[in-house]
Amino acid sequence: MKKLLFLFIALTTLANISYASFPITKNSSSDISNSISFQIAEEEEEDGVKWWLLIPLVIALGFGSYFLIKTWWRAWRDRVRWVRILTKIILILGGLIVLLSIISSLSGGLVYNMQ
User: Residue 105: what pLDDT?
Assistant: First the structure.
């Protein structure tokens, strides 16, 4: 049974890989497609993102950040030592990143451009 399942998976994988190896372009034609007339529905090309799909993600991130901040604040009030240390480290690193970005924007960038 295991050998039969392995053979099925191997053949399916081989079929998918060999099909993907030969891309089909829009302008390709063959004898069969010339003799049989059929209409291909063209997909609508949208440049924008479907914003309504992002609404559940934003809601989930909002609830998650609310509970994370609430838990962090409760641990800060209860004087949990590692929370206080980690908060100071995060604030120091965030301040350094902001300071470096301000210096970088004022000096024209930290990356040398050869153009």
Answer: 79
The answer to whether 72 and 83 are in contact (CB under 8 A) is yes
For residue 62 the two structure tokens come to 């909002």
CA Rg, the chain, in Å? 28
Cα separation, 114 vs 21, whole angstroms: 39
Q: How far is CA 2 from CA 5, 44, 61, 96, in A?
A: 5, 44, 43, 57
pLDDT bracket for residue 12 (50, 70, 90): confident
Question: In the 3-class helix/strand/coil scheme, how is 14-57 assigned residue by residue?
Answer: HHHHHHHCCCCCCCCCCHHHHHCCCCCCCCCCCCCCCHHHHHHH
Which burial class, exposed, middle or buried, applies to 51 when counting CB atoms under 10 A from its CB (0-12, 13-18, 19+)?
A: exposed
pTM above 0.90, yes or no: no
Say how far apart CA 106 and CA 84 lie, in whole Å. Answer: 33
Q: Region of 108 please: left (phi>0), alpha (psi -120 to 50) or beta.
A: left
| Residue whose entry in the numeric block shows the structure tokens 């994988």 | 13
